[in-house]
Amino acid sequence: MDAVVVGAGMSGMYMLHKLRGMGLTVQVFEAGDGVGGTWYWNRYPGARVDVKSMDYSFSFDPELEQEWEWTEKYPPQEELRRYLNHVADRFDLRRDIQLETRVTEAGYQEDAQRWLVRTDRGDEVSAQYVVMATGCLSASKVPEVPGLEDFQGDWYHTGHWPEEGVDFTGQRLGVVGTGSSGVQAIPLLAHQAADLTVFQRTPNFVVPAHNHPIDPEHQRSVKANYAEHRRANRESAFGIAVPPPTKSALEASEEERNAYYARGWYDKDNQLVSLLAGYTDMITSKEANDTAAQYVRDRIAEIVKDPEVAAMLQPTDHPFGTKRPCLGTDYYETFNLPHVHLVNVRKTPIVEITPTGIRTSEREYEFDSIVFATGFDAMTGALTRIDIRGRDGVALADKWKEGPRTYLGVAVAGFPNLFTITGPGSPSVLSNMIVSIEQHVDWVADAIGALRTGGKATMEASAEAEDAWTRHVDEVGRTTLYPTANSWYMGSNVPGKPRVFLPYIGGVGPYRQKCDEVAANGYEGFVLSA
Ligand code: NAP
């Protein structure tokens, strides 16, 4: 093949479409038995995107974006999966996607200047280019506590939920984790379970989603001006165009600030970034950030009737936004229900899973089922779980032992012609993912096109360019409050993972400019070989 693409989520599907359009032969391998990536695997109750549908959709084909009709402000997983299946059919992608096949190895063969890719089904494919479209949040993890194999009930992870769904009616249910997945699932699980216990290690900031059917007039007006709408998103900081802030939160009066935060909290058209996007220093000044954090804590105290439970739900150990904030529907309200209980596992950690439930340092809880909403080995996990070996047989997992090193988050020195879509060191998870995915796929396709027209066999990030970019990602990260939190952005949720700020916070627009400059300067920082 000319190219192997690993993964048939949004990145892999679009990469296939692009490369095939350039006349390349492409083989896509996908572990699931369907396309859609994140929206294939995350089928837990309440799973929905928290970027508005009009923004969270492909922009590469004007007809596609005009013909698809969204139904809700934030589409549920089922609708996103339908959309991605539609994309697969519309662009006839399936014939080059091999499902139920996990890539296990990719090794660079120096003599041939090609990659040899192996799968768990015994495939062996030689390819000139390998594109890792493996997703930032796809390597799921359950807590490292003993005993799970002896649990006699059923257990589930939100990140690979059974296709047929699960009915917890009448059950005693335990849920571990209160990140975005837990926050979305808990209110719906509470409707089903007879008794629900939530194990919370860190309370999160949860802003009301105000999801609602999409206004047809709004949909029409965005579509009438879609090219401009998309351009603004591409040039924005987070891939969602919002008016740029002009002043510090500390320059505004308390009244003015609270009026602004109230719009972010109560307005039915609010979005994830609403509370954070109003002032210039929300992610750089703790004092400024505290004004919004306190606003949210006050709302929690208003909603949750039991003051002790309210206090447990109020985040105080990290600035607002430094762990991924969540959008919720009736999240805090759920803790007013008599059959819903909250356990602080920061205070009384989970020590083991027993045959009948969960034991904390304080007591044992008995359950019929357990749901782990415990997240992912983010950004690097999906890559390092594959045995990827570059020049001299060096393993990517070894190279990244002290933290990922990339050039632009898309290439790695020593790994020629290997590209990582939304890899560590790119804006990725700090942005509207689909905007970043399209930018990377377009850039990689252009780079491969340039290699072919220029008669070059390989491109490889130079060690100097990689060093400089890795330093830059770290330096920009350090100008913000992000490194002060224990978050998956910092790798802190995986024991032993180096503490490194994984994404690039320089902004989607400026990052795109930098990538375009690199290309315009003949792929500056890359070594191109004949
Ligand atoms: P997550 O944000 O990493 O949350 C995992 C939760 O499990 C955290 O509350 C974590 O506590 C807890 N946890 C992990 N290990 C634990 C242990 N050993 N004992 C007790 N608690 C433990 O994972 P997620 O909720 O699946 O979300 C991951 C990311 O996926 C999100 O941040 C978001 O980017 C994306 N996502 C997006 C959407 C959406 O668009 N709507 C929905 C779901 C997910 P600590 O905080 O203390 O580590």
UniProtKB/TrEMBL annotation:
UniProt superkingdom: Bacteria
Keyword hit for S-adenosyl-L-methionine: no
Keyword terms: FAD, Flavoprotein, Monooxygenase, NADP, Oxidoreductase
Cofactor: FAD
Pfam families in alphabetical order: Pyr_redox_3
Keyword Flavoprotein annotated: yes
Similarity section: Belongs to the FAD-binding monooxygenase family.
Name of this chain's protein: NAD(P)/FAD-dependent oxidoreductase
